[in-house]
Structure formats: structure tokens, C-alpha cells
Amino acid sequence: MSRKYLRENKNSFNIVKSSKIYAKITAFEDATFIRNLLVDNDWDLDKIPSVVIKDEDYLVLAVIDEKLHLLEKFDTKPDDSTIDNLIKQFRRNPNNSKYGLNITRVFDTFIIKKQIFGDEYIFGYYDNIEDAQFVRNFLLDNDWNVNSFEEIEFDDEMNTYRVISVIDDRVYVLDNFNNKSEINLENVYEEFLAKISKHKYGLASHDYLEELKDKIPDLEEKFQVKTKDENWSFDNVRENENVLNQIIFNLTPFQQAVFDAIGENTSYEEIKKSLIRYNSKNFDKKISKNIEELINLDLIKKTDDTYSKTNL
Known about the structure:
Layout: E1 6-8, E2 13-17, E3 20-25, H1 28-40, E4 51-54, E5 57-64, E6 67-74, H2 80-92, E7 103-106, E8 109-116, E9 119-126, H3 129-141, E10 152-155, E11 160-167, E12 170-177, H4 185-200, H5 216-223, H6 234-239, H7 241-249, H8 253-261, E13 266-267, H9 268-274, H10 283-296, E14 300-303, E15 306-309
Antiparallel strand pairs: 1-2, 2-3, 4-5, 5-6, 7-8, 8-9, 10-11, 11-12, 13-15, 14-15
Helix pairs in contact: 4-5, 8-10
């Protein structure tokens, strides 16, 4: 019965009985071996061991979502910790995609999304993949319950501590630390609020904080700190906010895009990279022209070879 219960795909084999797919295996030899294993165990997935020996290899198997998966092969028998880690990694990225389950990237922002009862929920926005993957992994391990987060969480994969805050059911990573003793929550909250304020007033670009820009007073109350920064007086910025908004409102779409791409000490290449979706003929000339226009409007300034927003 060399091919009984096997259905060949383009690059794999399904093991099928009574229209139920029990496993999807890449190599024919592995597929026949696992097919035989299922037959010997009366197709009862609960009877399948986590490690089996095939020839001189140790095969790690796992039943996930009612299907049997071949996770890895080893020359020597793997320990329980290795097996647990393989199962955990597979659950997070069963299709071997770039970012794993539930994470998409939109420009420079990583977004955690999940379909629940037909509706799409967003659990957070992040400016780096490490924070996004940590939050996604934690949610996977805790049935997507955002209330499971503590104020400080340890990342056993990166060996770091993350300060977490759940705001309106979104999970935010406020900062990362190598040692728990380094964490000063008051400073973390002040710096987090300063980032939101800089984004709000166009002093820096933090797109992953966009949803919080009008919630600063509520967050000051939540964290019991006031927004402050070593280099900026946000009171002065607030006084000029209406003037700034009026100028920005009249910008062309491309001027707005260039303005948004500039943070603190942003190089021309960084600006160009942020605008790559607008790439067209005379791209560099168009960027340079709009930079000069923004300088003339006193919205940005050039220092050496970098650009920054001005504080009107």
C-alpha cells in the first residue's frame, strides 16, 4: 500500500482518510512513514508520540489544530525543552512567513491583527518587529487576553524586560531594558508621553503612536506624570499649534509626505527611503524641490547633512 491514503500536491503529500486530512508532509518517505504510524495507532492522534525513530533520525511530531505535523529531525534525541520550543515556534509561524502569524507591515509600522468571530481586531502598532513579535507571542500564549499583561514583562527569548501598557485594548511597548533594576517607570512614562507629543506637534514622526496623539491629558492622569522633554517646551508648541496646523493644512500632498518623513536629524537617504512608494521619474529632483519649499516655509531646517522640523 505504498501510496494508500496519500494525496500528492505540488510540493508535498497529504495523508487522508475518509476525506479528513491528518497530515501534510513534504517528503514522500516521511509521508509513508507517518502514514504507517497512523495506521498502526488506528488513526488516533492522541496515541502519536512526540518523538519517533525513523532509520537513524529522531522525528519530532506534534498534533496542532487536529493535524499531525513533522516539526524537525535530529541525530540525537531532543530534550523536552527543545520539543516545547519547536511547538511554540510552529504555533507562531506555521507557514514559515516573514513575520509569522497575525503580523503585517505597513510602511515602517508593524501591526498585530486577528480575526475573531468574523471581525478584525487590531491589538497594537509597533515601530520594530521585535516588540511586535513579543506582544504577538504573549497574546498567543494567553488566548489573546490583553488583560494578562503585567506592567513589566520578561522576554525569555531576547533576555530583556519590556514595559507594557494596555490603552483602549491596544498593547503598547513603552521601552526595553536589559536589567529590571534599570527601570524607572516615571521616566519611562515621561519619555513615552514626550514621544506622543513630538508626533502630535510634528516634531518627530512616530506613526505607531498616531492613535494616542489626542489622549495626552488622559495618559498624564493614567501614568500620574506630566509630559516633559529635555529639548522641547511643549507649552510653547501648543501656543503655536494653530499657526502650524494652518500652514500644514495648505501643503500639497507630496509636501505633506516629505514633511512627515522628517524627524530629528533625518538624512536625505532616510527621507527618500520613506517616500519610495512615490518613486517616479525625476524622483530625487522632486524631493529636493519640496525640501527647499518646506525650508522656505520655515517648517524644516537643514543642519550639516540632515534635516529636522523647526519649532515655530
